[in-house]
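Session log. Operator J.P. requested a structure for one protein chain; no other inputs attached. Running the standard single-chain path with token output.
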Amino acid sequence: MEHYINKSSAEGLKMTDQKTYDVAIIGYGPVGCTAANLLGQMGLNVVVVERDPDIYARARAISTDEEVVRIWQQVGLADRLNADMQPGRGANFVDANGVPFVKLLPTPRGNGHPPQQFIYQPALEKVLREGVDRFPNVTTLLEHECLRLVPKGDSVELMLADLTTDEFRRVRASYVIAADGGSSATRAQLGVGFGGRTYGERWIVIDTKVLKEWPGHDRLRFHCNPERPTVDCPTPLGHHRWEFPVRDEEDEKDLLHEDAIWNVLRGQGITPENVKILGYACYSHHVRFADRWRVGRVFLAGDAAHAMPPWIGQGMCAGVRDVANLCWKLNAVLNGSLPESVLDTYQSERLPHVKEVTNRAVKTGKLIIQRNKFRAAARNHIFRTASKVPYFLTWLRDHRWIPDAHYQEGLLARNGNGAVGWLIPQPRVFDEKGDSVRLDDVIGNRWTVLQTGRASEHPDWRAAGVPVLEVTQAGSTPRADSIVDSEGTLNAWLTTKGASAVVVRPDGFIYAGAGDGQPLPPPPAGFKS
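Structure written below.
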């Protein structure tokens, strides 16, 4: 529902005193929660605005990956979240008889966490919100709706309605992150287009509580049955999910009751002895991108900026990656260490990756939803045959599953070095005390120069106050100005990229790199440590 505020409608309502914040976050799902944790840890004054009184009870996102858990590691929540997750055992694509014709196994990419994990979203959000509660500099306004955004010079004024009282409230923020979902009211207020495609096929999603396990209960299976394609997905903490499309000749209303749901589950061999139905709903799949992710001091993130089908489990993940890219830049601008123009690199860095992820999700969906039984039979035969060819499954995983984290343009020093734009791996290393720790726990959340030798001084970066650490070989003695590459991962990766020195941004991406005998490019214009 849209709300319009004018002077006459506001008469008689109490208007609380206006407060000013560094950043306002609209929306308190996983993306908004992640942003609040990141900004809260950075010490910024943040306000979160959320319509609902509590965590949404129905699970929506079902999986995450190692890069996203690495982002949550930045705010000290990775180990707690990992405890509630279920490591994936690959994706099985099975025919109408339940016989696999191809299987994709997740392969670690060196980020220090399991490559694929299933989540139960309400439990994940609970941990993320508890993380936000650690920061007294973050204010959460539940049951509040943002009715209007008004630019006010070097800030944005938010007109808020307290949905539990008859009060209005004004707050100001230097910047706003709108993470208020695919039907984002903020995006609509800004007049930003949301072009793309909504698929005509509607999908029923069933959430259940496991009562008695069955063979394969812990496997992700895409039942590629032309008669009734179905997704069969484990979720942790004793839950399980199924999804299936509404056929053209069916009315979704006829499927949204327990008798119809049980008909589908029994077709999968599931009985009331196995699960208890917790809920079900009907959704459409979308491929959409906002025309602009930045309007002045307001930024769109997550589903407010883009929407994709769920086939490779990256909808929520893409939003978490968005705010990981944006939040450190907002902090840098607010503390004066980078000029405001750096904020223009948010969309230019993130959009290509989101588009590639979306493209892969669409292609995977087409593989699953083939309705022509003759084409489906040909598909099964082709994939079974190709799976016997060496490296085919590796190629399939690399070109149809999650693409590598890599920026091709943006806040990067383009001097031809192969490391630039890539997310640095995160092995375990020995710190100066000789303790085995994850790399980000040594260098995370700050600019850092890493080098494989001690010959170069990198005066421009040292003068800017950026620490320079030597990456030493396994067996080296820990020192204050070094990290010991105990697994050999960093040295091998740097060698592969042709770099003996790199500048790592606070988000783990490589700003600049240089080979032996080459100087590092200088810090970006306007940089201050």
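Operator note: Confidence is low (pLDDT under 50) at residues 1-15.
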